[in-house]
Structures are given as structure tokens and as C-alpha cells.
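Colleagues,

For the teaching module next term, I've prepared a clean inverse folding example: a structure given as C-alpha cells, and then the sequence designed for it. I'd like students to try predicting residues themselves before seeing the answer, so please don't circulate the second half yet.
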């Protein structure tokens, strides 16, 4: 007979506000920061799920997806460098724009 701790690993889970979560996906947590999904489990008796995430600074944690407040990592663009007038002039063949 299955116990509450008996669980099976599943491929993916749909998390409200985040979408489809799969192993290897990068996620962000408000306290633990950036991490990578290691595994997703469904407990056989209760049907509840946990997601095991390896966080860069805090190591591996098992979280309940409904309460974890996970988001996709924010993509930050590197600051744009201003193009020098000399380079801009040479790119257009020496003609003024």
C-alpha cells in the first residue's frame, strides 16, 4: 500500500502564473534567487506535488509549487554603449546620415 511519502517523478507540471515547468528549467524565487529545476515529484496518496530546485546560493530545496512564488528569471540586457561618431560615419561609407 502506498504511503504519503511514496512519490513518483513526473516530467512536467503546470504552475499557475508560471506555466509549464520542466526539469532543467531556470526559475527565480523571491528569497532563494536563481535556480534550476532538478526534479518534479507527485505524491501517490495525496496527489500533491513538489519541485526540487538547485539554487545558486542556497543549494537544493524541495518546494510546493502553489506556495513557492516562482517566476521566470528576469532577463537583463547589458548596457548599450554609445556609438562613436567616427564609427557611425565609417559604417555609412563616409556619408553623413
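(Answer key — instructors only)
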Amino acid at each position: 500500500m502506498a504511503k504519503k511519502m511514496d512519490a513518483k517523478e513526473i516530467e512536467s507540471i503546470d504552475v499557475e502564473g508560471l506555466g509549464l515547468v520542466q526539469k532543467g528549467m531556470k526559475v527565480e524565487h523571491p528569497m532563494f534567487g536563481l535556480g534550476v529545476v532538478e526534479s518534479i515529484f507527485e505524491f501517490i496518496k495525496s496527489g500533491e506535488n513538489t519541485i526540487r530546485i538547485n539554487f545558486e546560493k542556497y543549494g537544493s530545496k524541495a518546494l510546493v509549487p502553489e506556495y513557492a512564488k516562482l517566476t521566470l528569471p528576469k532577463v537583463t540586457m547589458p548596457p548599450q554603449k554609445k556609438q562613436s561618431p567616427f564609427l557611425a560615419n565609417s559604417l555609412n561609407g563616409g556619408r553623413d546620415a
